[in-house]
């Protein structure tokens, strides 16, 4: 009895409830239009519509916001009760499906500080974090992870490839109060590390000592010419010589053909350019290494991860070919909970989605075959 109580107590201590700052699964029909606001900064933003797309795992669960007009900017945002991630883990997670086989367009979200003017949100609105896939032709297929730090947007220094197929994928960014981070795609880690190493938040810790100079007599040559070695006197021989076996043709006419000259051949005695032997340099000191000193410009910051407030999430992007569906957005402080939510959303519908797509492709293929057959028959009959 006591033991059971103790286990319960321990479980309660270890298991703080996850904080969910924002969760959006678009599962209540048109109600999302009350929660999301379109910017009026421009007059011709593309329209989002609620849709599960052409193929899906579950018609209801897979409904999300789909871009519906080609070659448009999109600008929608939703706000929530403001929070700071001070001393907390922050998980940003959502699903993206480029079912249109996207050529060029964004699939990322932006997290804004509280106080965002939603009606005026646009490409230059100040955000805290931008995260998610971006595709533009074959060269650009990357996951952005951008942090705003002291007014500058800093992109991750590592290249994280995004998914470029037509299926739904789960993107997760975890930022921890120990200044480490992790990026996951489909609930598997694709990148991780710490903020200071992988973004240019701070100037480098060490710099080359500006006072230090390589001494003039520092010898970096590991080998030198052997001073004892001399070119042999009989070394110099011409590279080409007249062919000793060549004979003037009998019908050679000096008057008509000019003076006869034998063809030249490679001289077998030619030795090439003479080079002295190499020996170890007794004065060799190795490569000179510029000594480093602490960078006076560097000041550590233990709170790179931290933002005073998060208040809104936005879809602020450009798409050439529309059709992308955003769904299952989640902001939480709990990595495990996010993983579970990913499993319960993307995880339970992904296989059925793929199956439906494959069936559609198969039917399409059959239809095409029949049409081709018909066309061939009509031709035969003519
Ligand atoms: C999510 O699903 C994967 C694969 O089935 C499983 O290994 C993992 O434990 C699940 N995570 C959670 C938090 O339930």
Question: Would you give an account of this structure?
Answer:
Residues 194-271, 341-382 are annotated as: Disordered. The chain is α+β, with helices and mostly antiparallel strands and 382 residues long. The chain is built from 5 helices and 22 strands. It is flat. The N and C termini lie far apart (91 Å). 2-acetamido-2-deoxy-beta-D-glucopyranose binds next to helix 5.
Keywords:
382 residues; alpha+beta; Jelly Rolls; eight-stranded antiparallel β-sheet; flat; binds 2-acetamido-2-deoxy-beta-D-glucopyranose
Do you know the CATH topology of the domain at 15-199 and 304-356?
A: Jelly Rolls
Number of helices: 5
Distance between the termini: 91 Å
Radius of gyration: 36 Å
Encode the helix/strand succession as letters. Answer: HEHEEEEEEEEEEEEEHEEEHEEEEEH
| Number of distinct beta strands | 22
Mean pLDDT: 94
Unreliable segments of 5+ consecutive residues: none
Estimated share of beta-strand residues: 25-35%
Give the CATH class of the domain at 15-199 and 304-356: Mainly Beta
* Distinct bound molecules: 2-acetamido-2-deoxy-beta-D-glucopyranose
Corresponding CATH architecture of the domain at 15-199 and 304-356: Sandwich
- Secondary-structure-derived class: alpha+beta
* Percent of residues in helices: 10-25%
General form:
flat
User: Mind describing the biggest β-sheet?
Assistant: 8 strands, antiparallel
Main location: other
Pfam family, one: Calreticulin
Family: Belongs to the calreticulin family.
Protein name: Calreticulin
């Amino acid at each position: 009895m006591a033991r059971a109580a103790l286990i319960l107590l321990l479980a309660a201590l270890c298991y703080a409830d996850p904080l969910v700052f924002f969760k959006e699964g678009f599962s209540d029909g048109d109600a999302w239009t009350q929660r999301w606001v379109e910017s009026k900064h421009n007059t011709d933003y593309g329209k989002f519509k609620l849709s599960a797309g052409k193929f899906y795992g579950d018609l209801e669960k897979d409904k999300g916001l789909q871009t519906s007009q080609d070659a448009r900017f999109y600008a929608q945002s939703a706000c929530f009760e403001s929070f700071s991630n001070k001393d907390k883990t922050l998980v940003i997670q959502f699903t993206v499906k480029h079912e249109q086989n996207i050529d060029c367009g964004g699939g990322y979200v932006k997290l804004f500080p509280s106080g965002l003017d939603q009606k005026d949100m646009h490409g230059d609105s100040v955000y805290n974090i931008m995260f998610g896939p971006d595709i533009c032709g074959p060269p650009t297929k990357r996951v952005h992870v951008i942090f705003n730090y002291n007014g500058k947007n800093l992109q991750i220094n590592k290249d994280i490839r995004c998914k470029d197929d037509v299926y739904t994928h789960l993107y997760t960014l975890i930022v921890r109060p120990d200044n480490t981070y992790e990026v996951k795609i489909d609930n598997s880690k694709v990148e991780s590390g710490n903020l200071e190493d992988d973004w240019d938040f701070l100037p480098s810790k060490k710099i080359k000592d500006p006072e230090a100079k390589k001494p003039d007599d520092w010898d970096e040559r590991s080998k030198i010419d052997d001073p004892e070695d001399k070119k042999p006197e009989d070394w110099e021989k011409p590279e080409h010589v007249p062919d000793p076996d060549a004979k003037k043709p009998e019908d050679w006419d000096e008057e008509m053909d000019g003076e006869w000259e034998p063809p030249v051949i490679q001289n077998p005695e030619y030795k090439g350019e003479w080079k002295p032997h190499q020996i170890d340099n007794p004065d060799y000191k190795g490569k000179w290494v510029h000594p480093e000193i602490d960078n006076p410009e560097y000041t550590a910051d233990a709170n790179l991860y931290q933002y005073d407030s998060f208040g809104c999430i936005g879809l602020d992007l450009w798409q050439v070919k529309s059709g992308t569906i955003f769904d299952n957005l989640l902001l939480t402080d709990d990595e495990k909970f996010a993983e579970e939510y990913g499993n319960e959303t993307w995880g339970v519908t992904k296989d059925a989605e793929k199956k439906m797509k494959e069936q559609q492709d198969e039917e399409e293929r059959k239809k095409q075959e029949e049409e081709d057959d018909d066309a061939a028959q009509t031709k035969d009959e003519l």
